[in-house]
Amino acid sequence: MRKIYIFDTTLRDGEQSPGVNLNMQEKVEIALQLEKLGVDRMEAGFPAASPGDLAGVNAVARAVKNASVIGLARSREQDIDAVKEALKDAQDPCIHLFLATSPIHRKHKLRMEKQQVLETAEAAIRYAKKYFNKIEFSPEDAGRTELDFLCEVTEMAIRAGATVVNIPDTVGYMTPYEFGNIFKTLKEKVPGIEKIQLSAHCHDDLGLATANALAAIQNGADQVEGTINGIGERAGNTSLEEVAMALETRQEFFQAKTSLVLSEIARTSRLVSKLTGMVVPGNKAIVGANAFAHESGIHQDGMLKEKTTYEIMSPETIGLKESKLVLGKHSGRHAFREKLVDLGYNLGDDQVNAAFAKFKDLADKKKNVTDEDMIALLEEKLIETPEVYALESVQVSYSNQSTPTASIRLKKLEDGSIEEAAVGNGSVDAIYKAIDKATQEDVELDDYSIQSVTQGKDALGEVHVVLKQGDYAVTGRGVSTDILEASARAYIDAINRLIDKRKSPARSSRDNVTLI
Ligand code: KIV
Ligand code: ZN
User: Fold this and answer.
1) Total domain count, the chain
2) Whose C-alpha lies nearest to ligand 1, atom 4?
């Protein structure tokens, strides 16, 4: 079995998804979970993009011990210096340099001839070599680059000192046959190719990212790049969980495997979805809510007789397990602790106490508290932004004959309670107007989504919002058995994040720098 290295770029290419904006604490939280998942390499950000990005990469580099941490850089000295600074505390640092090579990018974006592209990239790799032992080079838009020029670029990168050459299908244009053929050709034609690793980086514009990554593996790729849940620019990147499970399920066919701890897939997917606010569609392969659900009578009958009739993978493999212990309002601290351990949480006494109080609140409203409820509660509890405002109460008066009115009471840090009321076009609008009045923040609601985290009439609802204020965009989330309360909590969470963001100059890479 060949080992396929997994290069996760959830925190860089994934974070480039529209509306996604992770703060430093959230980046570290995801990085630590990726470490548990067993990724070999993780790209933590683009340090030259902003001081905030640099600080985020640095925080990840300090926290992660068992994976190589990577920073992205254009082929420029100041970008390389920024990565050097960001990764100064990393156990196993690596720089990822890129420069576009396709005729379209050379002509319209870079305005460079082939020779200039070769020289610029070579100078950058040689400069980076002074500081890094591990260098990955990406000829951006490799998929649309002339194959003989791509061979030349790869040969130059090897000579200059790259240890990995990554082949990005930047615009998701390739078909599996064509993409596989690039790897086959590089392997056959480029002198010294055996000295480096070849990597595949695919985008999903035509829905072919996973198929293309697998075709690359079949043709000699040593590494696959991608993100959890396939998040990323436009239609996203290769879903790493899809590649890992394809290799696991079809081992005999691919003769290759990853070192991922597959049972951490479900938890990682949930965490990424929660923190990015990018909801996983129910029918998404591997991690969608319906991926292991069987609806039709014929399928259910087959499953009851023999699971393999309709199930090619078991949900347990990715860490979805049936609960043995059902928690409710009569459950005590002992059962609660057991459940935490069962779900993989290792909390200190104070955290257990805080989470137990929240659990008791929920158990009063909901008969059975499921594993999903617990995870939603815990993840909300454990990943908190410093709170300036906290919700004390929300009251809504609604009838389909009159204008909805909302009254809100917020607790302001060290400043007592504030009460406000407002009318709106709907109940949520009225709540948001009352919160605006109470906080005196001038914000624009850019996105609102609601999702049921669990099933049944008493399910927990999770609301995600994106708020904008000038150049800043932040996400907020709230969980409750009541969707109006969840809506209020999400909005207040976003306002707290906005205030936190204004205090530090940290901005997302998308705010001020483009990847050229
Ligand atoms: O898609 C792409 O080309 C990239 C590069 C920076 C590798 O993300
Ligand atoms: Zn990309």
Assistant:
1) 2
2) 170
What are residue 295's phi and psi, to 5 degrees? -105, -45
* Cα distance between residue 72 and residue 46, in whole Å: 5
Residue 72 near residue 11, CB atoms below 8 Å? no
Cα–Cα distance for residue pair 154/195, rounded to 1 Å: 12
CA–CA separation, 387 and 489 (whole Å): 12
Mark whether 55 and 192 lie in a shared domain. Answer: yes
Task: Please provide the size of the chain in residues.
Answer: 516
Q: Which phi-psi region, left, alpha or beta, contains residue 220 (left: φ > 0; alpha: ψ -120 to 50)? A: left
DSSP H or E segment with residue 370: none
Most ligand 1 atoms within 8 A of CB, residue of 7, 138, 167 to mutate: 138
End-of-domain residue from the set 231, 251, 276: 276
User: HSE of 484 in the Cβ direction (CA atoms, 13 Å)?
Assistant: 18
| CA of 140, closest atom in ligand 1 | 3
CATH number at residue 404: 3.30.160.270
Ligand 1: residues with CB < 6 A are 13, 98, 138, 140, 168, 170, 201, 203, 515
Q: Where are the beta strands (DSSP E) in 311-404?
A: 389-397
311 inside domain: no
| Type of residue found at 320 | L
Q: Tell which atom from ligand 1 comes closest to the C-alpha of 98.
A: 6
Phi, psi of 83 (to 5 degrees): -65, -40
According to the model, what pLDDT value does residue 407 have? Answer: 97
245 and 104 in a common domain: yes
Extract the tokens encoding 82.
């920024």
Nearest ligand to the C-alpha of residue 199? 1
pTM of the complete model: 0.78
Domain that holds residue 499: 389-505
Last residue of a domain, which of 276, 294, 324? 276
Nearest Cα to Cα of residue 467 among 492, 430, 438, 486: 492
- Using the atom order of ligand 1, give the atom closest to the CA of residue 142: 3
In the DSSP assignment, the letter for residue 234 is T
Residue 349 belongs to a domain? no
Q: Are 259 and 36 in contact, with CB atoms under 8 Å apart?
A: no
Structure confidence at residue 457 (pLDDT): 72
Cβ–Cβ < 8 Å for 4, 217: yes
Question: Which ligand sits closest to the CA of 515?
Answer: 1
Q: How confident is the model at residue 400 (pLDDT cuts 50, 70, 90)?
A: confident
- What confidence score (pLDDT) does residue 381 get? 54
Between CA 95 and CA 137 the distance in angstroms is 8
Burial, 162: exposed, middle or buried (Cβ in 10 Å; 0-12, 13-18, 19+)? buried
Min mean pLDDT across 126-135, 146-155, 500-509 is at: 500-509
